[in-house]
């Protein structure tokens, strides 16, 4: 029976969603920050520094080591001493943890490592996300549990902590770097009392009883010879055989408390599909949206989301695939040069070989280093495998003119649902645009019944480079996991961007456009390039201007124009009429309160002056 307890809502990013659970269920947290997992460690450190306790009223010890290898060694030691311990990492950081992970798993020690999955450096370094790091860990003996959204980042974090205590198999819980780790979304929090109800204190006592203790001497971490090593290694099989049932049971208990349904493999789509896409991670959102539209158009397709990737439960996988399925296309967000196919593809092929399924299996690579993956690409993948002569292996989302493995797709096929309001903001690193938009998402999510999502595109050069903020608002939960293609509101926070590229190309017909400009409204039109003027006229755009730089300087904010433009956004969109100003000022106090009264008052003055500085631009 689903719990009737009040479900608190919060607007947070994926890193915070996972870190909150980890901090509540840990006593020792060893960290060495690495992008995009850094905020998890930083949050845990800040919470402990402020005296925030875990579930049992004890403030977790957070220690920063000299490398990720040191962090893994520290939690190995803490776990061996009977403490509940965790860490956070990504990419090369995870690779440095592998030796200790083999030991932690080999000794059947309950633990959870939370990973914001990121590209492993090959021909070049990239701070962005794919699954190449977690795939390098699949032989360690850690269970691999994937989350596809901010909501799942919280919920699967809890499932991992619950399941590891019961199974004694350590977990690597991962979600996509940036696409989930840095996406700000409105989610249902799991109350601390609910977490307490779900945690079995007897399992924690069992973990502590296995700790190294001079009063209970045991042999651990020995060196073994050929006469016994093989046998001992195989003796762990039963733990992994039981693990899928344990994870499924933890998901069921979470469902009973929250009403949110999860399974190891979750199918969505037509009742009797001909083709099914198998995918895990943040690409699930785009896949589900595309499948829904394709089926409305008469297709018979579906998508199977993988959550528990290791151990791979062949029987549950076979049951989850509808009997009508004749083709399966497996989406891998990683590349293994020289392999017959990527890891998930190989597991699916093996699963069908063992169960005798008469299904054609195709493999596709997508989304490496956070490359876009949209519903249009999903439709293109389904079209490829439905072709009379499909390729067995291909890529989507790029143009491969070297090896010719990429497929074509219709980028105009997909449009945002009608109940979703979209906004795109072009800013400059360090001008406050991203911070203001994060606050806007929080204001909308926490002060209205709307669901809100914010995703922020950074250049790896960070400060001084262009940033693009993508905001969605909807009366229902938002599953879109890709950049906005047509925006109802476009804000250009640096007038020079108009000449550098074409920011109005993304504006939807009838959209509202806000330009931060030093020019008066009667001079502005003639200063726009022909491309921008054409967009305004052909699309019927409403063009507004404000001199945010002057207002910010007059208020003593220097180049921090974010407060001015945030206020203009709420005013022009009509979100929260009569309430927006108060909500913005309240958020200013939360954000800048520690910097003193002067900073708060300057930002509040900028809010008061922003709307008065707005002006409508006459076209032509």
Sum up the overall morphology in one term.
Answer: globular
Helix content: 25-40%
Tell me the span between the first and last alpha carbons: 63 Å
- The tally of strands reads 22
For the sheet with most strands, the description reads: 9 strands, mixed
* Number of helical regions: 22
Physical arrangement of strands within the biggest beta sheet: 1-8-17-18-16-19-20-21-22
Extract low-pLDDT stretches.
Answer: 1-5
Q: Estimate the strand proportion.
A: 15-25%
Query: How big is the Rg?
Result: 26 Å
**What is the subunit organization of this protein?**
single chain
Structural class per helix/strand content? Answer: alpha/beta
Mean pLDDT value = 95
Can you tag this structure with a few keywords?
9-stranded mixed sheet; disordered N terminus; alpha/beta; 620 residues
Secondary-structure map with pairings?
Blueprint: E1 9-13, H1 14-24, E2 28-31, H2 38-49, E3 61-64, H3 68-80, E4 85-89, H4 91-106, E5 112-117, H5 132-135, E6 143-146, H6 150-167, E7 171-176, E8 184-188, H7 192-198, H8 201-209, H9 229-234, H10 237-258, E9 265-269, E10 275-279, H11 283-296, E11 301-306, E12 308-310, H12 314-320, E13 327-332, H13 343-355, E14 360-365, H14 375-386, E15 393-395, E16 421-428, H15 433-447, E17 451-457, E18 466-474, E19 487-492, H16 497-500, E20 507-516, H17 521-527, H18 530-539, E21 542-546, H19 548-554, H20 562-573, H21 580-592, H22 597-610, E22 615-616
Parallel strand pairs: 2-3, 2-4, 4-5, 5-7, 6-7, 10-11, 10-13, 13-14, 14-15, 16-19, 19-20, 20-21
Antiparallel strand pairs: 1-8, 6-12, 8-17, 9-11, 16-18, 17-18, 21-22
Helix pairs in contact: 1-2, 1-6, 3-4, 6-10, 11-14, 12-13, 15-20, 15-21, 20-22, 21-22
